[in-house]
Amino acid sequence: MRILLFGGTTEGRLLAEAIAEYGRPGGQGTRPADLKDVCHVCVATDYGAALLEEEEGLVLHKERLDAAGMEELIRNVGFDICIDATHPYAVEVSSNIRHACKACGLRLFRIGREDTVPRKDEHVYAGSVREAAEYLKDTEGNILITTGSKELKEYTVIRDFKQRCYVRILPSPEAVEACIGLGFMPKNIICMQGPFGYGLNLEMLRAAGARYLVTKASGSEGGYPDKYRAAADAGVRLIVVGRPKEENEKVYSFDEIIKFLGLGGCAALKKSSDTMHKKAYIIGAGCGDPCLMTGRAVEALMDADCIIGAGRLINELIKAAEKGSDIMGIPAAALTRGKQLVTEYDRNRIERYIKENSPKNVALIYSGDIGIYSGALGIGDMPEGYEKIRIPGISSGIYLCDKLGISWQDARFLSCHGRELDIDGISDGCGKLVIFLGEKEDAGRICTKLCTDGKSGHEVFIGERLSYPDEKITKGRAVELTDAVTDPLAVMLVVSGQGGNRPALTDPGDGKDINGS
Fold first, then answer.
1. Looking at domain 397-495, does it have CATH number 3.30.950.10?
2. Is the entire prediction scored with pTM above 0.85?
3. Domain ranges for the chain
4. To which CATH superfamily is domain 278-394 assigned?
5. Angle at the Cα of 386 from the Cα atoms of 24 and 270, rounded to 5 degrees
6. What residues contact 414, with CB distance under 8 A and at least 6 apart?
7. Which of 48, 179, 199, 484 is buried most, with the most CB atoms less than 10 Å from its CB?
């Protein structure tokens, strides 16, 4: 099969790489060895061509073609199918492709993008770039423009555009020359290749002092959801240039094209699955306070459409959002706004929910770290059809040891949270024990057993509500804490009388709270 592919987008690049791999010796496909041009890729600029490498099976065309030029290419080379993977707003190009294919009797597949963000009353929706510029013409405040360089001339009608307008364009000489030629200030020109994440969008809006952000609804592949969220959290008004109506009889998804071409096993696509396919983030949320989550965990929560976790974890995120707290510099409200928040811990019910609702990206959050006595250990290969991305967190046991200044590298970790703990001999042969508790009487029960075993002098530290404002750490000998009643989700550290490198205890019998030690 010989394919004509019109690219210039993420989808086009991934398809070209996958098709080239399919046709190489040792690849997934079975093309004849003498067929050196499995896929012809048409891009409009040198910059677009630079994102691909011409190799065996892949032929690049780096010029703008009108309908007649496309028709000539089709007749001269001879193709089996044509794939239009151009931008959703490339109306003229798509129209030319459609007419050329119709004239040559070539089957055409148009790749469409899902509009993933709903319309909001507080946003301004424009039918075109010209309409957006007309709306902004007599406004006050700076504007960040992210609609590309092709129609920048329309924005020159805006009063004081040279000072007020910041433009984000591709880093190509043609785009820069176009900006400067129209009078945009060099200091207001941002040359970067997207798509951009939430954090970078937020910082650009703040750096520009923007009151308005102009964007196209280019879907998740074009970074639209992250621009949408960043604008909301920066207090910036969003001006959305609506998508032109697709004139093709049928529009296909990227996944449908992959399936049709039989490219599902290509390494090129697996390597880029985080860009185009569903992701399941399995996150260790730390020991309590959301502010102790890792930066990677926060990024994952931003990317997720749905967050599933135990009630305590979901509630902490909601509370942080209501307080207006920041987590790793990102407003907590941005982590929850417009998302499905599901309180669930049971593996089977989580799997059922994901199958029934099929979120694009889902975050499964677990307390502490996902590698030690965690519900995440039961997830395995679930959910099916998602790329699994595991993100560690800070275990409450490690937090307690670090807070006390006690090394945990030689400790034994045990748990009686949701499981039976064999108390007999729990401290035999180990100088340090970290035990995750599950019921309020567990600490006293364990200390009673230590005394029964002749280990009443062992040092005991009990951490409750660790990392929260009302955090409490109690210290004492085992004999002093046999009646201890704690928060059910506490953690305790037991250090034998022979243990070294630990805080010195006062006289037996103090049973003191050592918060702040």
1. yes
2. no
3. 3-112+251-271, 124-241, 278-394, 397-495
4. Tetrapyrrole methylase, N-terminal domain (3.40.1010.10)
5. 15
6. 421, 426, 433, 434, 435, 436
7. 484
